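Input set for joint prediction.
Command: fold jointly, output tokens.
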Amino acid sequence: MSASVIAMMLGVSTLLGALGLVALLWGLRTGQFDDTSKFLDGARFDGEDELKDAVMMEEKRKKALQKRRKDKRVMPD
Amino acid sequence: MSKIKCDHCRLEFDEKVMIEDEIDNQKKYFCCKGCQGVYRLLKEEGLDSFYDKLGNNALEPAKPDSGGDLERFDLEGFMNRYVKKRDDGFLQISLIMEGIHCAACVWLNEKVLHKLPGVIEASINYTNNKARVVWDPEEVKLSKIIETIRSIGYNAYPYDPELQEERAVKQRRDYYSRILVAVFATMNIMWIAIAKYVGFFTGMRQDIKDILNFAEFVLATPTLFYSGWVYYRSAYYALKNRYVNMDLLVATGATMAYLYSIYAMITRSGEVYFDSVTMIVTFILVGKYLEVLSKKQAVDTLDSIMGTIPTEVTVVKDGTKSLISVENVKVGDVIELKPGEKVVIDGIVVSGSASFDESSLTGESDPVFKKEGDEILSGSIDLDGVVRYRATHDFGGSLLCNIVSLLEEAVTKKPKIEKLVNQISGQFSITILSIAAMTFLGWFFYTQEFEKALIVAISVIVIACPCALGLATPMATLVGLGVAAKRRILFKEAAFLETMAKCDTLVLDKTGTITKGRPSVVTYHRLGDAEDTEIALLVSMSNHPVSRGVAEFLRAKGAVPASKELSDFKEIQAKGIKATIAGRSYIAGSLGFLQEFGISVDIESENTVFAVAVDGKAVAVFELADEIKEGAVEAVRAIKEMGIEVVMLTGDNEKVAKRVAAALGISDYRSKMLPHQKSAFIENLHSRGKKVVMAGDGINDAVALSKSDIAVAMGSGADVAINVSDVVLLDDSPEALYEAFKISKRTFKAVKENLALSLIYNSLAVPVAVMGYVNPLVAAISMSLSSLLVVGNSIRIKLSLSSK
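tokens >
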């Protein structure tokens, strides 16, 4: 086996592994693993309703923010 | 009678006590109004899929919402303390949720809060039951949010996350990231290293070797400088404070090996040691992480105590009542207390009388009756009656506030006895580093070869790598922990075994720790014609600990409560009970209570007396005392035989304290101790150079427990006590306390033996390395041999403890 093939295999696999590691670290830093059961529960319970819920919450937040802007309580971006 | 399940909480109850209800033409059964209300509410809201998600889990029966203190959540004092204003103008609060049992509960609470207009964000952490809620103050009030949570059968308390939690979480996360990087690199370096080991025997082309070396270099670099950063930091601070620790040796060893490997890689001479670099860093880092991880979870419980402290009190000024934030109450203000309220400010009663539950201060469960002129302490709870009292301290100076701040401080600053391995490792590090330096100089002058001298010096450091030393303690403590766990003794951290073995004083709390904590009958005098079954019926009506003690005694005697008609039952707090049974008038209670009805009983006793009179004539007298737990006397004697000084502290009165202390053979005891006095007592022992083990069970012991070197809590004790403690005795027995001492002493002995073994190993291996005879193979064999010795010796703990 030529040296370049080995170098490439090592490089690619380490890079892929490092990407996974970075993703894991990002998840950790943003607090996604703070609740150990959240993922499993999500898999057990989350369905269409929960998706709708999440969208509803997003809209609620937007509306509330817009209302505040209208009232000029928050500086526009 | 058949048992059926409540349709809301899923607990089983007798059919006849169930509330029957028809919902959507289906018969449903509920154990209480609370459960029924919640079920109906969820059905109306279309959230009944909650019950499918619940699976086989059961809930606590829902408490009907009293709504009593809701307004406190909108008060200014409360808002200032717990509510955070965010940059986008929304408000945010951190809550501790009560009643979360399973993932379905989390789902339900989040769902209900999401549906509430004005709530912008609600997320609940199932693992620690903490929640974060963000809301728009224009649309919804906090009291409405709490009311919504209560309406579905849960409850929420606020807490201040900035206090401790954020810091603890940050540190844990930081360590975890470092470990992830280290483990990732180690795993990858290992398979590259295996390829190279094979190449060592079968031969490998130089260009392939270069590639593998470079890959190892790439992986080792982040491990050493990112994951290993903690050693550099620790070594730096140690040097700054003029002492040497194990981290310095690890840092020097790893850095030297790393630098040398780079040199070897570039010059293509000799072997590279990148794999050793990552492995040393990773293994020792994992050990450190375990320590960070097990830092006590006291933070959570502390938050829940803080959350229940009222933020406002009712102050009466010129005949008008007003709610004033606790911080603004001045000494001399008159405060009104209603039944069920918690006292937050110390004072003296000016009018009214009531019974107070002081269990969180003294540990004694009997309510204490207070009238005009008596002192009220903060932390107690008004059980009945309205009382007005004059503040003698402001909030900051009050007992409750003092206890909380003492606890807060104690959780973060616990005294630590320096570990043996740390003491030795300092010396060890200095010795090895100087030997390495001398080796380098010696070889350099002897051979005039810089490279050879450097390699030998590094091999000295690498072979003396703290592995054997590092393994000495964990192996022994691991076995010790296992033996302890089998005997239902829980050491929360391995290091506590060593600390406990070094302690020379044991401070015992009386109630609940060495006594059963509830009064039981010691003597029973029959004075007249009384039927035990009727007395049993009478006392079964009261929940007072004394009544329960008598009821238990009668049950043990075989007297079941008579199935007769009982009427006019009345319970006079802290005095006694009266009722009419089958037309006969019964009065029972303290001697003073009977005296009020003109009934005198001629008896003198130092125990609690419970007398019963029928139709104006005394018929029976029970003497009750808090009984000493079985095995307590033997355990105390055995502990004393180990050369440990035993002291007893109690919130109870002198007379009882003296009797219990005499029965146990304890000559040193203190009575009437309040929580802060107990902790001061421990500090006093510390100042005299004592190392203290404290055993307790109540909230009143928590501060003292956290001040002691080793805190032992009873498994049935209060949550706070268990959380601040280092050792938990799951079966509550005094023998277990003795066992804990025995196991810790035996384990510590093994630790010392192991340390000696590893030092012997080093004194043999290091000279060989100094002479330059060490190659990787020799190092590997000698290291595993020394590790095996250490492991073998540790297992002896198990054998020697089980044979006794």
